[in-house]
Amino acid sequence: MSLQTENDGQSEKEHHARYTTINETIQEIQIIEASSSRSRAHQAMRALTPFISFVERYSPAVDSMVQFDPKPSCLIWGSLRVILRIARSIKFYYDGLFRMIERLGNRLSIFNKYHELFGDSEEFHTTLSEAYVDALEFLNAAKCAMSNNGHLLLWLRRAWKNFESEFKEIDDRLSRRCQHLESLTTLIHRDRLHSDVKKQEDFRERTTEILTSLTKCPPPRCAQESYQEIMAWLSPIDWSEDLLRIRRKRSPNSCRWLTDHSFFHDWTTSTIPDSSIGWVYGRAGVGKTVASSAAIETLQNITSSKEDPGVILYFFFSGADDRRMTTLQMYQTIISQLLSQARPSLLPLQPIFEVAKKYGRSHLTWADDPVSILRQLLAIPSETFLIVDAIDECEDVESFLPDFLDVVRSAPGCRTLLLSRDIPALRRILETRPRIRITPTLTKECIDEYITNAINEVIVEDDVIRADILQQVSNRTQGMFLWASLMIQELKDAISPEDMTAILNESPPVLNSMYRMATRKMEQLPSKRRQLAKRILSRAVCSVRPLTWKELQTCLAFDSTLTSTRQRSLSRTLPYKSIVLKLCSPFIEHHLETDTFRLSHMSVHQYLTATEEAEKDQFCVAPEDAHRDMAAVCLEYLIQPEVHINNNLEPEEFPFTEYATSNWCHHLIKSKPDIHLHDQAVYFLSSKDRRQAWLSRWILLEKSAFPLQQILRLIHEVGQWLSSVGPDVRSHFDEHGDALDILVAFSLSRIQDPQGELSVKAVASKRIGQFERMMVIRELAREYTIAGRIGDGVNHVKTQLSQMDALSIPPVESVWLHSSLGLLYDQQGEVDLALSTQQKALSILLSSPSHDEFEAAQITNELGRLYRHQRKYKESEEMHLKALTSLRQLFPATDFQTTLTLNTLARCYRQQGRLEEALAFHNEAIAVQKTVLGLEHPHTLWVLSDIAKCHRDQGDMAKACELQEESVRLREKVLGPTHHDTLWALNDLAVMYEKDGRVDESFQIHSKALDGQKDTLGVDHKATVWTAQAIENLQHRRR
């Protein structure tokens, strides 16, 4: 490769480089190394080194003797010391020079190989040429230094001017060039990887089209568009980014202890289902995550040469990132990887996606049954390798793992490798699987190789000292790569060999001790830097995901201990990135590609939040304190006028908006009680404009299936936290009214704006489907009823209808509001008025030629419920069956709305005494809901109570009480012991006890419910009055 430049005005050194090849440059390095080893100066220094070391070793004793009894020999000894110091300085000079030449040769050899791969990249070629020019400049200087080493004057100059001062500039320049080249090769590699994946996708698409045409089936319409829509719906994390981040931590050819082990070979070639699932386990810090990346890379190399390369899937759990802690996110990411590598598997996903769209579920949820989706996709015969790291950091590992293992075990050709710590919950499940424990003996060779390479980069002049340090570090790692990495970082900061020895002696082979040693250094920082370091660690400990630099910088600028943040200029308090990187080096990891900051390891989080460590380490933080500070920062940021009055905020100008909007509730709920934070939250929520701007933005950002329902639950929890800390705050905000206002605003904004583009609210309206909208209205009706404000709800809906009429909005757009008004009338006890309102809503809807069949089925089902309340069971059954027929045509049998209709029909049958039919429908519905929603979901618990009532009416009191007791227990767990539904379920249980003759127990349960209702609803609430009457009737019976 010619090192040519394009500048006509090139310097002499560039002219010399123009016709020099890389191989010639490497050869020049080898010649310099060889000639230097034969030079008289080098031989002289080699001969003098033992003598110098001997004198240095015993010089302190001689110094003491001379100082005790000064004689003329002192002058001789002093002169000798000066000469030896000069000789040692000269030795250091040449040692440094030789090491730099050696490092340069190694780097150039690697970059020469990179050039063979990436030489067609103009940017890489230019950058590499610049690096060669600098390399030649250094080699000329080095050659000059060594060719003149026989002159006494030049030797004295070496003693006067050290290696660092003479070569620092060129060394720094070369280091920057090499770092740039390394980053560039990473980016080029990633770009080509994406290109290769794209080529594979194009190939699979062409193959699919050919096969489709051969079978005389038309190709799928808008396949690419459907693929993009489905991928957005799956909403995976960036799996390639995760893999790249972890690969950067790994040394070349490391982790052979796993990839060369017979366990790994047997796993990759296994054809027996019971042997296709392997488990690699070990304690924290032994390198499991890095080993998983090595396994992935090895599999990619193995399969790339095959005609059918198969599929390689992977996921990295992380307890420090909320997005990487959930089973659902794992399914989302693995399914997305399958689709990206095998487009034909898109077909079974299409109908599931279409159903989700009809319900307004903008992202995959448990309601879409991701377990079954993965099972279907893996059922397509193909060689599949699946690697899941850190499963012990999954938040629900015990409940998810058995189903997951069943899926992958039954998949033909699928091999799964799990990596984790050895915890009892996992051992119970995986102890019968092929497994390998990571021991110090197993990893010693790889750790020693890593340590050797790392120590060689540290300037240690004496070979004996270097070997001693290598031995000490190797002996004390105890198989922990993380400990070795931390120790290398400490040694790189040493100022002398003696300092290195001291560091080794002070560092026991325990991670927490290493962390404590790092914080002791931080304790010596100036006050301002120490306080900044505390804030950095506090933010990293509690953040729900890794923060980008702009996010971290902004939230660090807000100091929760100061009350004048709002008055200060934010731009003047933004910390510098270099300072942040320097302050918390061993604890914080910076990912260059995404510019994000995270804790470097899960053990860091455990150390910083450990109660026993907090008592002696000022940098440790209680999680509830960290959440309190972060909540205060988020609220302070959102209170800024320029933030809350503007819906279209540019991320560059307002980088912390997304995080603060999405997560301040989470941080507040997890905070310790704090009156200042209480007042700050009340101030924020008391402004309707601020509140609704936040809610609108939150819905746009939230990725859960039903964002409005999710935010209402969050606000409820926020209200509970506020009430537990300070005075009652319900008078300051009305989240139910806000939710209704937002629903109306989003509904109106579906019409395009004058510029022909959808507004921000229109984008959000796509995320709130008809199903969620009516679910929210039902929740609002219940909450208004519980709060005794049902009249306010009715008036609010009437006001919104009047406003829509005034705007001449087409009547069909207000159908959902009429249906909402009917629901509120029903809660108010106005059943006839509710019935006529729902009939009006259905009439308006059916008058539109392009009406929504799903919406019509919902209103029809609601009519059936109202007829049941009027005891018109024939009409009720007719409406429910009509709705059920429509829904079964629209959706699969496992659809959630279908199960709701089954339950309403079953209640109609129960009230007619048709108990066997009612039980059959309830059991069919709850079977689906347990799978889709889970046993602890409120809707599932309602059905559980319905089944208990069917058994009660059949006279099977033992079964009825058993089921209702389970319903009460789960409601207390999920909703809390004082929730309205929990208290009413207690009353249902008391009624069953009374019917079973257990009057005393019935009295106790009713009394418990009454106490809760008095505290939460008040003594005049109709539910409280009913319970009090039931207790009075029981007292009469007990007399």
Structural account:
- By secondary structure, the chain is mostly helical.
- The protein is about 70% helix and about 5% strand.
- It is built from 48 helices and 8 strands.
- The strands form 2 sheets. A 5-stranded parallel sheet has the order 2-3-4-1-5, with helices on both faces. Strands 6-8-7 form a 3-stranded antiparallel sheet.
- α34 packs antiparallel against α36.
- The longest helix is centred in the first third of the chain and has 52 residues, at about 165-215.
- The radius of gyration is 36 Å and the shape is elongated.
- Mean pLDDT is about 75; it is low at about 1-20, about 150-155, about 210-220, about 560-565 and about 750-765.
Question: Structural class, from helix and strand content?
Answer: mainly alpha
Distance between the termini: 106 Å
What is the overall silhouette? elongated
Write down the overall mean pLDDT.
77
Query: Biggest sheet, in brief?
Result: 5 strands, parallel
Number of helices: 48
Indicate the radius of gyration in whole angstroms: 36 Å
Task: List low-confidence stretches.
Answer: 1-20, 150-154, 211-222, 562-567, 751-767
